[in-house]
């Protein structure tokens, strides 16, 4: 069977960097306990494997109180690529954790921007999903209350003030076109607004490449965690191009119809899919199907 795998399939730069930091800490740990603030990636299988190797994912702040830290042997808390707010960072330091910051540098750049601009008196407008941990983190670096919107309609709800200056940033994974439309609408209102384009191309590139592949194959396989929104989105994009698109978490979920005449298979994967799962699927398609 012939197959094409998207070059952009799997971990993006920031997630790969975060995973490397976890591995580094496992090697260096020297008896220290290792925690991650939230699951390091949206992939239960990976999180379970890490747990078996002593890396515990904190899912709720209430779990922190049970962790005893003494200053001679600080426990390590790894911050995932989404980043955290300043308040959370201070809280973790107060509780005595040694912080290993795996915040993606593209997200950290947004923290620095909103922190500086809000300290300079600008009001911050964040375009993104208020409930997403990345946006919660960004909000927490603004020294004044930011406004968060995620649709064109919500522009009307912003109480603009002509005596104020505004700075607009976006969640890294926000849709390019939607961002452009929202910024155009804000610009048209005539206030003093500066826009910092903070969308990361990793998601866009993965979606574009996967769409192109899906358009030319007979069967498309999208690998990703069912809880991962970027993987679900990838599946929707591919399904629009290729009717025979399969969304799987691991090779075990793959149920290809062997009776169909399939000449070419496409493979892509969401940002939280480790390489070994992609390789297993590739091997199956090449050898067994
Ligand atoms: Fe960073 Fe972009 Fe990935 S912001 S975490 S490289 S999607």
Explain what you see.
The protein has 289 residues and is an alpha/beta fold. It folds into three domains: 2-10 and 202-288, 3-Layer(aba) Sandwich (Cobalt-precorrin-4 Transmethylase, domain 1); 13-103, Rossmann fold, CATH 3.40.50; 106-199, 3-Layer(aba) Sandwich (Cobalt-precorrin-4 Transmethylase, domain 1), CATH 3.40.1010.20. The protein is 39% helix and 18% strand. The protein has nine helices and twelve strands. The strands form three sheets. A four-stranded parallel β-sheet has the order 1-12-10-11, with helices on both faces. Strands 3-2-4-5 form a four-stranded parallel β-sheet, with helices on both faces. Strand 6, helix 5 and strand 7 (147-149) form a beta-alpha-beta unit. Helix 4 runs parallel beside helix 5 and helix 7 (201-216) runs parallel beside helix 8. FE3-S4 cluster binds next to helix 1, helix 4 and helix 7.
Structural class, by secondary structure, is alpha/beta
Query: Any ligands, ions or cofactors bound here, and which?
Result: FE3-S4 cluster
Query: What's the CATH architecture of the largest domain?
Result: 3-Layer(aba) Sandwich
Strand order of the largest sheet: 1-12-10-11
Q: Regions with pLDDT < 50 over 5+ consecutive residues? A: none
**Strand content range:** 15-25%
- What's the gyration radius in Å? 21 Å
Helical amount: 25-40%
Domains, number: 3
Morphology: flat
What is the rounded distance between the termini? 7 Å
**Class of the largest domain, according to the CATH hierarchy?**
Alpha Beta
